[in-house]
Design a protein that fits this description.
The structure is a homodimer of 201-residue chains. By secondary structure, the first copy, chain A, is mainly α. Chain A contains 8 helices and no strands. Chain A has 2 domains: 54 residues, Arc Repressor Mutant, subunit A (Orthogonal Bundle); 144 residues, Tetracycline Repressor, domain 2. Helices cover 72% and strands 0% of the residues of chain A. The longest helix of chain A is centred in the N-terminal third of the chain and has 27 residues. The relative contact order of chain A is 0.10. The interface between A and B is large, with 47 and 47 residues. The structure holds a DNA duplex (30 and 30 nucleotides).
Chain lengths: 201, 201
DNA sequence: ATATAATATTAACACTGTAAAGTTAAATCA
DNA sequence: TGATTTAACTTTACAGTGTTAATATTATAT
């Protein structure tokens, strides 16, 4: 009598189908330019079916963003095993963060800029994937501080400073592609290096 | 025969009225949630009248943002006279920048995040107000470099690093108001101080 | 007073997100 | 098996969107 399980599996499958279609459209056309009807067309269901799986369009966005955060977390966690120099690991984490943002610019913007606009106070509350990402940063920073590599001993502030730097450069590069930036990799490098040096000094 | 002038003045007046109404609504309700009809209602004209003064909704946003950039530029220029320590002036400029962003968070987001989404390549091209703002930053940085206060001699990269830092912290504070940030002023201070120290070291 | 130009409005189109009601197919129970 | 409940999906509908074209109104110039 596994019909219930099969049904549940099928339901989950359609949910994923919707999610995949939504992400593809959000990324290629921008959240605002994607209608529920477009998503529905893509998966060949009626528009209102989506509402059986997601509360509304913002909820759909929310789910897409949670996935993105999970991907980011996975990308970062891979660097954790690097047991060499904690400052070097931190530097590489910063680089991986920006790289991730530039590899999936629209996903990054959806998650860190568009979503907060639609889900006012939801963002990084306890237990969320977003919090886990920041916890990763906390760990990295903590290691550096324990080894007395940084001037200040405040894990929170230090982490927030680093996040500001990488978030800032990521968004600028995404949003103003025509600005006469310094060669991209050099700029990213300099941003991270400068911040870390500033923390040491 | 100053009727022509009067007419032009009246036209300019209505243009401003539209602009003011649009900004108020964009700021209080968010660009996406403001319809041309809402703006029209507010100024007590028919919706289509707006199209005699602005090409479309994106153009209206564009004009609002240009104003914001002008305000930002004015705010910054006031600090220019400060002929004391160029590094100190730079620090204060950074603070003023973030303060401006937090004082008018919605305007800041409209200008630096929403607008680029709607006006793809328009942003900081030659002669634009946006470029003037970055030129201000160039001047400040240049002064520091001339006085050999910074490690590198690259005005462009140095400016971009600073911009990344302040842009990043501004947006994070705006977008994630519920995150357990370090006390706001302390965080801003640390971000700017850290970056500048990193540039010196 | 009439013609001309400038300005504003009305009506319409093809869309939007989403709620309510209706339909169909599958699972359960008699 | 046949009736009934349940789950999944669709149709219809509403109020609202940006924007265009055609029309109307008003103020100026002749």
């Amino acid at each position: 009598m596994g019909t219930k399980e099969r049904r549940a599996r099928e339901k989950e499958q359609l949910r994923r189908q919707i999610l995949v279609a939504a992400r593809e459209l959000f990324v290629s056309e921008g959240y605002e330019n994607v209608s529920m009807r477009k998503i529905a067309n893509k998966i060949e269901y009626s528009p209102t079916t989506i509402y059986l799986y997601f509360k509304d369009k913002a909820d759909l966005l929310d789910s897409v963003c949670k996935e993105t955060l999970l991907n980011l977390l996975n990308t970062l966690e891979k660097l954790k095993n690097d047991k060499s120099d904690p400052v070097e690991t931190l530097r590489r984490s910063g680089q991986a963060y920006v790289e991730f943002g530039l590899k999936y610019p629209q996903d990054y913007k959806l998650t860190f800029v568009i979503r907060p606009q639609f889900q006012k106070d939801l963002g990084l509350q306890e237990g969320s994937v977003g919090e886990k990402v920041f916890n990763y940063l906390r760990e990295m920073v903590s290691e550096c501080i324990q080894q007395k590599r940084f001037r200040h001993a405040d894990v929170e502030t230090t982490g927030q400073v680093l996040w500001s730097a990488v978030h800032g450069v990521t968004l600028l590069l995404i949003d103003f592609p025509d600005f006469p930036w310094t060669e991209k990799d050099k700029l990213i490098d300099t941003v991270i290096h400068t911040t870390i040096e500033g923390l040491k000094a």
